[in-house]
Amino acid sequence: MKVELAKLELLYIIFILATFVSCQESLKERCAREAEEYTVRNCPQKIGMELILDSVTFTEDANVMGYHYTATGTLDDAEMMKTNYTRFRDLMKHEIRNSANLKPYKDAGFSFEYTYTSQKDKNILLVLRIEEKDYKVCSINSKMIWTLMVAFV
Questions:
Q1: Dist CA 99 CA 41 (whole Å)
Q2: pTM, whole model, 2 decimals?
Q3: How many CA atoms lie within 13 A of 101 on its CB side?
Q4: What DSSP designation does 102 have?
Q5: Rounded to 10 degrees, what is the CA torsion of 121, 113, 68, 90?
């Protein structure tokens, strides 16, 4: 009787452990799930006057968070988008660097891709891809700064 009870307890413990282990999802799995859930719950979503967020995606094999927009009004202009590419890219790098919400993704080295599609003709107007090397800021501690200052005096 005691042996059977011990076996049942062991099976119960194994079952509980297996349940907890199976409930753990990786960051990549969580990103894919949350992107899909966000899209279902919130998209399309008007962002400002001339942008509509159509969907959020996560490409697991490339570690890319994707944001897909439809441009309307004055933003729905391929030439204007091309002319302002550097300005848009710099703005997105700044936003990513300063976003606390993206911290887990930045810590994992994910890339961020923004695709803007024309509402008029459905053509892609602009694709911005911001990679880890673009948003990581070189951190210099105060000891290094002091050493550099002394070296140049």
A1: 22
A2: 0.75
A3: 4
A4: T
A5: -70
> Residue type at 113?
E
List, in order, residues 6 or more apart from 41 with CB less than 8 Å away: none
pLDDT band at 150 (very low <50, low <70, confident <90, very high): low
Sheet of strand 64-71: strand arrangement: 45-47, 51-59, 64-71, 111-118, 124-130
Query: Has residue 106 got a pLDDT over 50?
Result: yes
**Amino acid, res. 30:** R
Check if the beta carbon of residue 89 is closer than 8 Å to that of residue 128.
yes
CA distances to 96, 108, 138, 153 from 144, in Å: 26, 26, 12, 15
Question: What's the pLDDT tens digit per position in 8-64?
Answer: 454 445 545 444 444 688 999 999 999 999 999 999 999 999 999 999 999 999 999
Q: From residue 43, how far is each of 53, 54, 101, 127 by CA, in Å? A: 6, 5, 19, 19
Distance CA 92, CA 84 (A): 12
